[in-house]
Amino acid sequence: MQSSPLLLEEPIRMSSILEPSKPSFFPAMTKIVGTLGPKSRSVEVISRCLEAGMSVARFDFSWGDPEYHQETLENLRAAIKSTKKLCAVMLDTVGPELQVVNKTEHPISLEADTLVVLTPDQNKEATSNLLPVNFSGLSKAVKKGDTIFIGQYLFTGSETTSVWLEVDEVDGEDVTCVIKNSATLPGSLYTLNVSQIHIDLPTLTDKDKEVISTWGVQNNIDFLSLSYTRHAEDVRHAREFLSKLGDLKQTQIFAKIENTEGLTHFDEILREADGIILSRGNLGIDLPPEKVFLFQKAAIYKCNMAGKPAVVTRVVDTMTDNLRPTRAEATDVANAVLDGSDAIVLGAETLRGLYPVETISIVGKICAEAEKVYNQDLYFKKAVKYAGEPMSHLESIASSAVRAAVKVKASVIICFTSSGRAARLIAKYRPTMPVISVVIPQLKTNQLRWTFTGAFEARQSLIVRGLFPNLADPRHPAESTSATNESILKVALDHGKAFGIIKSHDRVVVCQKVGDSSVVKIIELEE
Fold first, then answer.
1. What is the C-alpha separation between 263 and 254, in angstroms, rounded?
2. Which bin fits 64, alpha (ψ -120 to 50), beta or left (φ > 0)?
3. Are residues 361 and 386 in the same domain?
4. What EC number(s) are associated with this protein in UniProt (predicted)?
5. Which of 248, 21, 206 minimizes the C-alpha distance to 95?
6. Contact 202, 123 (CB under 8 A)
7. Cβ atoms of 152 and 190 closer than 8 Å
């Protein structure tokens, strides 16, 4: 049974902060998305990442070819099989990303207060005073005084490998800039960001479409992270493209807000997307530093009220090279949870970082601690007020299930669902206990073959805060014609007991359809 949560608004006994945290089957209600790459692609390391709490694996196609990512994905599947931990797959598109092209891969030293020319001629060699870029329209997009940032791919902000430039002159297709800080650019891949400037390139590029229609289709991706989403039309275009690719019509689209264009059209984008990724790395360049927190809080609140997952990036950058986060980073993770984030994305920290497993573990522990002091009561009242009256039937059932679970201090909420929508709505109201989503497969046909649905819906729960999926035996119907059919509930309860999240004499709230009616019931377990 749940104990009463601490609240930050109430006095906390300071000595209680030093008490060790109790271990639990679920490391945290907040989910962790890990980017897989050179330092995190072996079966052994991926297995440890899953054990540490990673529930979504992100494959970023800004670098690496499909064969490389396919090999990593096969290792992920082997790790899932050995650990018996479910994990979803997210494909992150390149989008209209501007890059510096350094074919020699030799380090490039840039000195403050000297000039450097950005040219679209990619045949030229990158040097200290000439940098080829992959966009011919840069000279038309910028003007004297504009700010340009160049950073290592998935730059952490703490390196001496990032440089600020100020546009000094535009000459034909070339852009001459003043270097504002000394830096060394090692390696071949550097991203280029122009502050608050419209880049006339499609959001879903031809390269993205090719990757999605081959690698994405082959691997039935659960999520598409749509980089540089700037308008609602970007999401509609991507959904139309996915709808023509068989099973990918079920793939959820997460709009990645990376610049002021996306921020300006946020409300329309949120209506179209299945979830939002707050890309604080690029957005932190486009926005003044003092405005970043304001966007985060406002955007997460809007996502929470809409019942759509909000995902935050760039939280523990320094763990790319260090075993512990800074004090500011630890606080940042906690604040993301207290703001209402569903998930945290780890980028460079797991892709090329030295401590991918430790990073996931520490972020999970910080999330779990923050969740203990999350003011669920205040949030619940806000969500109910925002939903308004009359509530939809499903929304009313979901909020009632959460209210009942909190009042009786239930250990878990068990929700039977076929589409996953009912379980996501319950999770929207942020119960203090886990929601076990029992996804019932459904038999469908396209008149050529019969298939079971349910796997997509189960995996797509893995990015929603507090929601833990369990794919049921397809022989059990989601909508029971008899209230006495308790066999599937027994399986779910046994599953919870086996993992120690349900104990004797605990109370459990169950949300289920019986015939045409939705039922919320409270069960008190016996010995």
1. 15
2. left
3. no
4. 2.7.1.40
5. 206
6. no
7. yes
Tokens 């004797």 sit on residue: 504
Residue 128 tokens read as 């200290």
Residues 424-473: tens digit of each pLDDT? 999 999 999 999 988 877 666 666 666 566 678 889 999 999 999 887 76
What CATH number is attached to the domain comprising 387?
3.40.1380.20
9 in any annotated domain: no
Is there a single domain that holds both residue 60 and residue 171?
no
Q: What is the pTM of this model?
A: 0.90
At residue 453, what are phi and psi to the nearest 5 degrees? -95, 165
DSSP element (H, E) containing 43: helix 43-52
Neighbours of 387 (CB within 10 A): 19
For the stretch 117-124, contacts whose Cβ atoms lie closer than 8 Å and that sit 24 or more positions apart, written own/partner, are: 117/174, 117/175, 117/176, 117/177, 118/148, 118/165, 118/174, 118/175, 118/176, 118/177, 118/192, 119/173, 119/174, 119/175, 120/173, 121/173
**Phi then psi dihedrals of residue 423, to 5 deg:** -65, -40
Range of the domain at 454: 376-525
Asked, for residue 6, whether it belongs to a domain, the answer is: no
Question: Is residue 341 within 8 Å of 32, Cβ to Cβ?
Answer: no
